[in-house]
């Protein structure tokens, strides 16, 4: 019997839901000690835990599964690299599978990984928007960390970029270098990253009692950056700084400003976002921008997963700071070392 | 005894090298029928094949391992996607591990994958340069397909981009649209992709009895494209076309040409390479370029691996055609659909 016991059997015997049984067995959530005891007792009675682990895995396979919905790999590979650095130190390795954001594929990939004995999962998004948590019947008690796109369940463990902090820092920096007529060119309004960076910017505007010239939402594209910058100068000829919410938008904005005779950074300072090297460091001028610190997110996700495996699970959303990299689009070239690598901006307030 | 039998024991009994024993057991290489019989007999005598498979895997786990040395995911993720499309149809799934081009990590990843029962391997490069084949003691008889970077062993199965064909087509197209003073701006001379694209271009120059104005090698960067384009116009004011070996170089070339008053494409037509969407389709003008067809490479690699698993291994290097995508940098805008998606150029000769 024990080899055919399912989580549902355990839940039934303990008189709890499958989700609660899964959480109790995995120690991944705060549930009452009484419920946890009931579930553990039921599992023991049915021989569930042992049978289940023997059936589907070697104990501590040393493998961690990453499931990504990122198609072009821009987030998934740096995050995988970060996770590997941390996992390697404890003799774990990471396997990545691609779900293209399709829940059915995500579920079937996790089933495969569970059958082949991974110890835990890192779910990697590419939008910054919150996502539904995985079904406990899918994860079958495996610990899960959500990276880049947080889980909607506040008890889950999620690691994200501190986009609010980045937005606040961008405006603080522009004010510090003496800019007073500042606009924001954002991406689409339905991206959490856009909302959060704008929210952070607004906080600094309020703190210093400044009004932004305009905050414009549209697309994550160079074309939008170009069009928006031209529009802004037309309506506000005294504009002296633009905070762009992506490096693509920033490159477009630089192009738009130049097409109407404005110099960057002398007339208008421009900040980007993402520190996507090929865009930001190869631009002309090179772009001041925020680094999303994806490798650090990967390292942190791996560490939190190892902690969960060691019985010390984390809960809630952890924000990783995005350092600001200063390059020529906000400060005229002073020395060549600045050109591509840039320097990290030291915050005055925090 | 059988559970401790190693491939080396089988090789010793059959009086062949470990590499030959591995190839014979896996049917992955052309070796004499006599040798193959000797190895299979030795394996049977020692109970090797069965013991080995039982120990390290379920038979046909349905899992394929991808090992990539690509850090930023630009090649690895689209290739993974292509492989998944093909594998999904036969109920296989793909796991990706990142080796950062470090042979020791590559070996340890393959060991992990073999222990966890993958059926075969796809090794993904990111340079186009040929690479040493994996040690048979590492692959332990698993079939291997090399993608993007070919194996140096001509008996291995490798899938690459047809860079020679792309170079030939670029020049043919420029001649067809009436350009006569054509230069090539290449990347670093030690990249096979640069050598092959230049070789293809030279073949068309010879075929049509034309001399290129110049062929300049240096870096895969916008900065180099800009500098090279300015240099070319300075020395050859009648220049009317540039074939650039990457989209980044092409974007730099467009910038350089504009900075000295040349219009693209009216004065100088510019072609890029890679069809890296964010670069090529967001450029101004949008870039005519070659698509590396990475997803098709992934699909083909997966199909060839499934063929090997079914006892029909492929050998040698298979080149996948890179379609040319025509956009505004070579042909003035005629209709809006051309702007970002472009159209595939139909070859006149082949």
UniProtKB/TrEMBL annotation, chains A, B:
Pfam family, one: LacI
Record's keyword annotation contains 4Fe-4S: no
SMART domains per UniProt: HTH_LACI (SM00354)
Molecular function via GO: DNA-binding transcription factor activity; transcription cis-regulatory region binding
Superkingdom of origin: Bacteria
Domain spans labelled HTH lacI-type: 5-59
Record key words, sorted: DNA-binding, Transcription, Transcription regulation
PANTHER family for this protein: HTH-TYPE TRANSCRIPTIONAL REGULATOR GALS (PTHR30146:SF109), LACI-RELATED TRANSCRIPTIONAL REPRESSOR (PTHR30146)
Designated name of the protein: LacI family transcriptional regulator
UniProt organism field: Bifidobacterium myosotis
């Amino acid at each position: 019997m024990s080899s055919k016991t399912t989580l549902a059997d355990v839940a039934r015997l303990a008189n709890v839901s499958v989700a609660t049984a899964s959480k109790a067995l995995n120690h991944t959530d705060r549930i009452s000690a009484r419920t946890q005891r009931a579930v553990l007792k039921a599992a023991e009675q049915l021989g569930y835990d042992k049978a289940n682990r023997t059936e589907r895995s070697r104990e501590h396979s040393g493998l961690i599964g990453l499931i990504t919905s990122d198609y072009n790999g821009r987030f998934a590979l740096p995050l995988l690299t970060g996770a590997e650095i941390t996992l390697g130190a404890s003799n774990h390795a990471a396997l990545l599978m691609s779900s293209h954001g399709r829940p059915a594929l995500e579920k079937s990939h996790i089933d495969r990984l569970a059958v082949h004995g991974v110890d835990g999962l890192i779910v990697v998004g590419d939008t910054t928007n919150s996502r539904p948590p995985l079904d406990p019947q899918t994860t079958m008690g495996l610990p899960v960390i959500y990276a880049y796109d947080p889980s909607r369940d506040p008890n889950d463990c999620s690691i994200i970029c501190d986009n609010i902090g980045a937005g606040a820092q961008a405006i603080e920096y522009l004010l510090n270098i003496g800019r007073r007529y500042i606009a924001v060119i954002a991406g689409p309004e339905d991206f959490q990253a856009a909302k959060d960076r704008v929210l952070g910017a607004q906080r600094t505007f309020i703190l210093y009692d400044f009004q932004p010239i305009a905050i414009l939402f549209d697309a994550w594209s160079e074309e939008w950056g170009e069009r928006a910058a031209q529009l802004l100068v037309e309506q506000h000829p005294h504009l002296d700084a633009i905070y762009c919410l992506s490096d693509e938008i920033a490159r477009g904005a630089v192009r738009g400003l130049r097409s109407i005779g404005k110099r960057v950074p002398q007339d208008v300072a421009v900040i980007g976002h993402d520190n996507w090297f090929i865009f930001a460091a190869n631009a002309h001028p090179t772009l001041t921008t925020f680094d999303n610190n994806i490798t650090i997110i990967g390292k942190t996700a791996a560490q939190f997963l190892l902690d969960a495996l060691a019985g010390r699970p984390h809960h809630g959303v952890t924000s990783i700071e995005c350092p600001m990299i200063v390059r020529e689009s906000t400060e005229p070239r002073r020395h060549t070392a600045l050109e591509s690598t840039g320097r990290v901006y030291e915050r005055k307030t925090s």
